Amino acid sequence: MTPGTGPRTASGELAAIEEEVRAHPHGRVPRDLRRRQLLAVAEQLFVERGYAGTSMDDVATGAGVSKPIVYDLVGSKEQVFEACMARAADALAAQVAGAVLAAGEDAAARLHAGALAWFEFIGARRGLWDALLASHDAPASVAIAAVRARQDDFVAAQLAAGAQDQGRRVDDELVGAVATAMNGAFEALGRWWSEHPDRTAAELAELYTGLVLPGLVGLLDWADVPGGRGR
Amino acid sequence: MTPGTGPRTASGELAAIEEEVRAHPHGRVPRDLRRRQLLAVAEQLFVERGYAGTSMDDVATGAGVSKPIVYDLVGSKEQVFEACMARAADALAAQVAGAVLAAGEDAAARLHAGALAWFEFIGARRGLWDALLASHDAPASVAIAAVRARQDDFVAAQLAAGAQDQGRRVDDELVGAVATAMNGAFEALGRWWSEHPDRTAAELAELYTGLVLPGLVGLLDWADVPGGRGR
DNA sequence: AGTGGTAACCTACTCGGAGTAGGAGAACAA
DNA sequence: TTGTTCTCCTACTCCGAGTAGGTTACCACT
Fold it and tell me: By mean pLDDT, which of A219-228, B9-18, B34-43, B108-117 is the weakest?
């Protein structure tokens, strides 16, 4: 109810931003800082209450501000959601890409490293994952489709590279389909994990690699694993 | 605007139901028939305009009836959606289960038959698939989760049976995870197919089997395919 | 025929949340 | 001081989900 600053439990980043906000004189805060604050508040609310359970008024008052400010700085509700998702997707993509890059040349090792990074990411931010990427109640068609498309492209590029390493030239569309299927399996396992949290990211990565790698080898001449599986 | 019967383009079943409705005297229609009509109208509207684009008033007037009737006969908007989805999911499950059953004993053949049946189903009802099962704008958490759970259970049961045929006893949770991943890949390929409609169901089934079967063999001692892939 | 009961249906709301119009006050430049 | 810009607010409109309470046709039974 205090009009100044919301007393939210603050996920670290939020706390830092609100600190910065509080440092301003009469509650008058520069545009960009306010925008970051609003996104942080919105993210927290989406995680806590889901998309449908979060109103634009909640976001506004959560940041100690009124509704038109939200619309001015971050746009419609769906746009707010998209912005949150884009941030999360950026972080996920960066983590996976980094792990793959660091895994060296061997295609099988790269796959395993990527899978592990993926599961570690969603394991570390389970709430975020459930609320945003695996959200059930968000009409976030565009945002979700965009994230998927991007992840599909990444995986497809990795597959194409791996196939080329084996001197195999494969149909781009086929590779795209395989990449989509692989990401579908990732998503589904992410959801499954939410209901079986006692498993570790390493176990899931192992499972994933074991399920998918042999087929990749067969379909695309991918990697040079003779008979052994999963690294 | 005519209060009696809507002139919707009628997907066969709808036409039949509306015929039956029209056969009644003063627009007074027995409860059960009206319910089926409402569900048919709703399904059509969801397919045409999506979940968010369809209002309960639309459904009501589409059936030549007022809103409270809808609430009385089929409940809230989400319940209407769930009912539509349940129907579609029943049909899908029946088709897949039938194909698997008809495929005989060989586990690899069963997998291929199931995959083919799945893709044929969504190929034949692309609009329905996109609007319901692969819907982006529906807060149909419960319904979608239920359909997934059911499909997961089915696949898990098939996997367990296949593993047992090889005399292998495997962790139930592991099998569940694999089944979930497999269904995630199905879903993703279904979406992919919507954007690459020139592919055939047979091609997708082949691709799917080729991607997944070898991994299953390695993970669960599933089927007795020695080195060859995809049947 | 009348009369009670019930099944099918309607009008006319409430309520909540998305999105907007238009203005007020602080800060700063000239 | 005056004008401009920037941040922010009050007070709406609009739309759609869901509901309260009443009305009409039909049916069963006397």
Answer: A219-228
pLDDT at residue B1, rounded to an integer: 37
Residue B4 reports pLDDT greater than 80:
no
State whether the beta carbon of A7 lies below 7 angstroms from any atom of strand D.
no
Q: Which residues have CB under 7 A from strand C?
A: A 25-26, 28, 54-57, 67-68, 71, 76-78; B 3, 27-31, 34, 64-69, 72
User: What tokens were used for B160?
Assistant: 């367990």
Confidence of residue B134 (pLDDT cuts 50, 70, 90): confident
The pLDDT, as a whole number, for residue A11 is: 63
Instruction: Tell me the two tokens of residue B134.
Output: 């692969």
Query: What is the distance between the alpha carbons of residues A133 and A148, in angstroms, rounded to a whole number?
Result: 9
Q: Inspect the interface and report whether the beta carbons of B188 and A189 lie closer than 8 Å.
A: no
Kind and range of the H or E run holding A77: helix A77-102
Q: Do B207 and A219 touch (CB under 8 A)?
A: yes
What pLDDT was estimated at residue B225?
Answer: 57
Q: Residue A132 contacts by C-beta under 8 Å, 6 or more apart in sequence?
A: A43, A46, A47, A81, A84, A85, A88, A138
B24: nearest nucleotide, CA–C1' criterion:
C8
**What average pLDDT does the segment B65-93 reach?**
94
Sign, Cα dihedral of B156, B199, B127, B187:
positive
Q: Which nucleotides of C are covered by protein (CB under 7 A)?
A: 7-12, 16-22, 26-27
Core vs surface per residue A93-122: b (16+ CB within 10 A) or e: bebbeebbeebeebbbbbbbbbbbbbbbbb
Residue A181: its H or E element: helix A172-195
Please measure the distance between the N-terminal and C-terminal CA atoms of chain B and give it in whole angstroms: 57
Q: How many CB atoms lie within 10 A of CB B207?
A: 21
* Nearest CB neighbour to A192, from listed B180, B196, B199: B180
* Residue A181 to residue B207, Cβ atoms within 8 A: yes
How large is the average pLDDT for residues B75-94?
93
Q: Please tell me the distance from the alpha carbon of residue B119 to that of residue B186, in angstroms, as a whole number.
A: 8
The more confident residue out of B100 and A135 is B100
Two tokens, residue B83? 């009912």
Q: Is the pLDDT of residue B220 over 70?
A: yes
3 state DSSP class of A84: helix
Across the interface, whether the CB atoms of A188 and B187 are under 8 A apart is answered yes
